[in-house]
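All the exercises in this workshop are built on plain-text protein records. The record below serves as our worked example for the rest of this section.
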Amino acid sequence: MRKTLLLAGFIALLLTLPIGSGAQADITISLTATSHQIIAAYTAPDTGACTVEVSESNTYSPVITDVNSTLFSGSNIDSRSGSLGVGTTLRTFIIGTVPDMRGVIANLASDGKRYGRALQPLTTYYVRVTCGSHTGTASVTTLNRPLGMTRGNEQPIASAGTYAFPTSNESDRTQTLIDPVTGIKLRKLTAPSDDTVGGNISMLGSGAPWPFAQSTINDSHGVPGYLWAGPTEGGSARLYFVTDTASRFLGTIRLSGGSLAGFPSALFLSAVTPHFGTDPTQLFYIARDGTDQTGNAQVIRCQLPASGDTVYDTSAVSGAFAPCNFTNLTSSNSLKAQLQAFDATWDQTSFGNFANQVVQGNYLLFTALRGNQDSYGWVGAVDLSTLVPSVAGFAPLWQRGGSGALSFRWCSIHTSHPALGTSKMSFTAKTMYQSGVGMGPYTTNLSGAMTNAQTTVTFTTNTPTSPNPDTTLYAIAAGDEIQIDNEIMYLGSNTSGTTWNVTRGQAGTVAASHSSGASALMSCRCHSPNDFTQAGPSWWDFVADPHATDTTGTNLITQLANSVNYAGHEGFANGRGLAEGGWEGFIGAAGVNNTILSISDSAAFAGAVKSASGNAWQKHPGASQQTNASSAQSLVWGADFLAEDADVELRQTSLTVVTGSLWKYVNSNYILQRKKLAMLAIAGAKPLLDTSSTATGDVIGGLSGDNYKYCVANAVNECRQGSAVGDVYINAPGLTGSSTCINGNIDYSNTTALCFGNFPAYGSMVEQIGIVEANSTGKWIRGLTFGNMPVKVVNVSSDAHTSPDGKWMAFYYLDPSGVPSIWLARIPSWPGYDGNDRNTFIQRSVNLSGPALTSTVLLKFGYDTSLNCTSRTEACVSAQANNPYYFASETFTRLSCAGGSCSASVPVIPDRVAYVQPLYYDAGGSLLSTGAMIAVTDGLTAQTGGVKPTGKVSVRGGVRIGP
């Protein structure tokens, strides 16, 4: 028996040895991790090259993409680019290739495809180093992607004019990709080939709706997943089953002919807002059983197969219809009849557009609009808990409320905001300033001119009119808001006839003079009293006030008193709200005056700010909808996709042609923060490559060889002969003298738009936003992914929606041919705030040991082996009086280091691997020696989920990493 055990043990030992007989496991590997890279340090037995295997499996198969030599020749050899110690025995191998400070990454593989080569956060990696007959193994878990990193990231580019996003097979929903910057795993939820009904998949346009059912069901194999319903551009909706590893298309939601008596033969049901009930296999809709407005409004239900059915096992064929069993729940008492009985003034022929349908628990909420979005209309609620659904509340909103600021007079309905876990309705009301059925605008005119001091106003008529149908609504009343030119006024009492007392210069405007005949627009007062552009959420408690007759602002609320900045699209769930007016959040019950938490969308890094406020970078946030999230995934955060729109700061106004396609931009209105912030430089849908350096003369020209490059002069005559400090030169063949950063998103074919400046903290990224406390430092926010899309191509209405377990983030993706789909980003566990300040450089301490005659020392550093720490090609220097550091060509004073034994620090960008090299000088300023280059991290390991590696801390060439 003993011999048998010894033999079994010997065989087990052999199985753990690397390939090749006589291998010695005698190499000690020290591993240090960030969230997306690992520093592997070891001593080789000789100066020969070693191979490095890295895998998520302890069998070392398959190896990760970054060291897959089949895809990237030589990537598993420790002499590859970025490695240290080549030709010596002291080696450092950086695992995980990420973009350099210009954004450049080498990720084009031998198969012609691009890959993400960054490591995934919170993932255990096994490392094996083989040097001839010697080997060593170690493992480490990468750190979590931390909160509070407020330096925006450079987008990945392959070369001038070419992005380096991983290659996507748009028709393959099973494909997974790795974000090349953050290491976040990406996969597809939908694919363009899923269906042709209704056109392309669309987005929800607000972060508030939850497209996922709030609880799981199983396929027939017992694998749990969430149902997901998303709208198309043609008004239909598609249904999917989403597990932790797969997304399956179940078909288009369609009520086919004969399914329900009296309904149209092909009724496609929308999913712009959530329709899932408390039972995840049931969806509810309001539809008409006729082909026009005269049909009966009915509540219908789509009953899907029960949990465990085989229908959830595989994807349906393209063009299939969802497996709905439809029931008309109000066939015995139509919803139309119920609504007319509830309020006889309702007329379905005029208000039959049942929009903003939302299922909240046992209630189906809706609006019945006069026209389309932004027209006036009714608000309503249907109780689904009864055998036959019944009306729980219904009211003509534009006729409701109290007076003045408590009134909904002259208000349209913009959108609803699903409020998970409540029996209240949240929506945005806004002024009817557009043109269309039920959209106004309702105006009268000044009869006589007004001075800026005048306190009365006289109109040509007290009954405002519209050029569209419904030419009049009602007469002017005390408390109404009017807008004349750019001034907001509130009407007081009527002095006589068409003359009214008026309070001037309201809601953030200034009293001004107005000419006779000037148009007076009747405005909605549902906004911040200090800013008429900030329209906060309105609330209706339909259980307490079914007819919305409250005039006190208790059950029918136009604007909460604390909503000075809490405005725009709102998301609410699990006792937390989040809106776009910055971001603004709160913790507490819905529809009450909670303390508002201001969360900056423009957090600074090292004191430098690139503003993303207002419409410059659009926000459509959603609150914490992850109802089934574990404590690791957390319930305290919301989500958004920060998309560039009307960024005035990045608009160039002084382009002049130099030669060919080379343009000069005299930057007089924007301060570039080259040392602190990432560069945002695009010409249309093409990225610009920075060629700035210390070289002088005509470095950048106007020929095609310099297309999609730019150069910023840091000294006179850099970039071009005769340049001044700060001059910018841009070569892009599509530019014109009027090129600038236009409003809205652009398509992939655009060549004329020019956006040049810095990235904001979370620009063009899907992000998590902690709803924890008010702060301007970004300490509760983290960006997850660029979404595999160029900046400015992202739709400005983009948003993000989390799965109810908080593990996946759904976002809108646009492929290079302009076809959209929905993708998912894997969300690492919520790290919490660890107390480390990552909205500035981390001062990384380095202990030095140089020649005894050393008097001063200089630390060169950067994020590649050429020691470049910005997109400019020039080594960076840490010296005395850093602010934050120096370029090597600048004037500085070296650090004192008597005897060569001292400590110094370098300012490192958080969560990045930096390279450091010391230079030792004697008392006369002569260079004594250059120390070995080392690789360091920021040294912060306190993030939740980060696992410290086993092994020893190594000393490298007289430089020891400080604690």
